[in-house]
Amino acid sequence: MLAQLGGNHAKILVSTLLLAVVLSATAAQALDASGMPVVVTPLASRTETASGQPITLPQNNVQVLVSAYQIAPGATLPVHKHPFPRYAYVEAGTLQVTNVETGKSNTYQTGDFIIEMIGQWHQATNVGADPVKLLVIDQVEEGTKNTVLRQ
């Protein structure tokens, strides 16, 4: 193909291709040139809830809700359940979650990731000396809430 273009056209095409290669290489190097690393630390990979249920998602109009919780030392949340998936990352403190249907408890500490049970009555207690701080993510059907209190 270059032979068909003639001298000047071939030189222009080769120069353009070389410039494109240099620019793309420069752009890739520029991304790394800052010297600031990005570190990804996996926190969880699960297919089941804390009580062994398969994780199932809402089927209609999924809405993601994100909340920050702070639970005082010694505080116990009321007995409740979640109709949809709820995930929590423990930013600080020690939280004990008890399935009141089975009596089984799990204790979570700073850095733990919780995949809460779905449709099972449970409650949580701050069993540590410091406040529990949680980052909570709910996946619900749009317009619904994800906590049902036991009456």
Structural notes for this entry:
The protein has helices at residues 2-5, 7-33, and strands at 62-71, 80-81, 86-92, 94-99, 105-109, 113-115, 122-126, 132-141, 148-149. It has 151 residues and is of the alpha+beta class. The strands form three sheets. It has a four-stranded antiparallel sheet with strand order 1-8-3-6, with no helix packed on it. A three-stranded antiparallel sheet has the order 5-4-7, with no helix packed on it. Strands 2-9 form a two-stranded antiparallel sheet. The radius of gyration is 27 Å and the shape is globular. The N and C termini lie far apart (80 Å). 14% of the residues are buried. Residues 1-5 and 7-32 have low confidence and may be disordered.
